[in-house]
Amino acid sequence: MMPPGRILLPPPPLLLALLPLGLAVPCSPQPNVTRFVCAEPTLSTFPAGLPPTTLAVSVEFTALAVLLPTALAGLPQLQELHLSSNRLATLPEALLRPAPALRVLDLTDNLLADLPAGVFAGTGSLRHLVLRGNRLRELRPAWFRHLPQLQWLDLAANALAEVPPEVFHPLRSLRSLDLSHNRLESLAPNALAGLRALERLDLEGNRLGTLPPAAFAPAPALRLLFLQDNELRELPAGIFGPLRRLRVLDLARNRLRTLELPPRPPGSALDLDVSGNPWACECPLLAPLRRAAPRLAATRDTLCASPASHRGREVSAAGPIPTLPVPIP
């Protein structure tokens, strides 16, 4: 109760304006929550005091540039960590050890040029790992030694110039691998060794000029294969032979003149994009197209470069090529 004679005056307007700024902490954790989300552009320090019940943390589009090794301490139940679109240039090797239940780690669009060798040593439950849009120049085999349950690996839009032999060998559960928009000029014959569960492989937008004959043999479960926007001039005979389950093959905008299509099991069809290549429209090309009867995507850009009588014509008009997929015995 206010004493008699006293009048409680409101604080000056300037003080009212300054109080929230001085006391508020960007994205303050709340007790007893399971998901913490922060996208405050001014945030530069990883939030402390997250409750041990936290299952997911999302700190994205902030000014976060440094993570302490203890940033995740006290979060034993953490399953998802989203750190995309920050300014992280490095990670502490012990960062993830307090979170053994982690299943999803998203580090998209940071400044990572390298990672500590043992950064994933304590994350055997990890299912999704996204490193897209960083500055990685090489892949270290030590990163993947402790990820037997990883199913999704996104390494797109980095600066990778090669895939070391057997670097992915421990990833026996991997189903999707994205290496698009890097600087790959070739693949080692056993670059995909160990990836027998792989269903989707994206190599779009690299500098691939050739591929080894057995490039895809270690991944017979492939269903989706993206090779568009490379510099492929020819493909080895039988390169697609092991891919009996292939359903989508994108070879658009390369420098191919001839093509040997994958063998088709009975009752299956292949969605094929071969647009933007200088096709030699003689029988060696048209015959396999007729046999496989693919659904040609972007037919207006699928043009003959030779012979002279067919130059500039659509491949689909250069011979009696069916327009709908049919079963091949």
UniProtKB/TrEMBL annotation:
Pfam families for the chain: LRR_1, LRR_8
Signal peptide limits: 1-24
Keywords, sorted A to Z: Leucine-rich repeat, Repeat, Signal
InterPro entries: Leu-rich_rpt (IPR001611), Leu-rich_rpt_typical-subtyp (IPR003591), LRFN (IPR050467), LRR_dom_sf (IPR032675)
SMART domains registered for this protein in UniProt: LRR_BAC (SM00364), LRR_TYP (SM00369)
Domain of life: Eukaryota
PANTHER family registered for this protein in UniProt: INSULIN-LIKE GROWTH FACTOR-BINDING PROTEIN COMPLEX ACID LABILE SUBUNIT ISOFORM X1 (PTHR45842:SF22), SYNAPTIC ADHESION-LIKE MOLECULE SALM (PTHR45842)
Protein name: LRRCT domain-containing protein
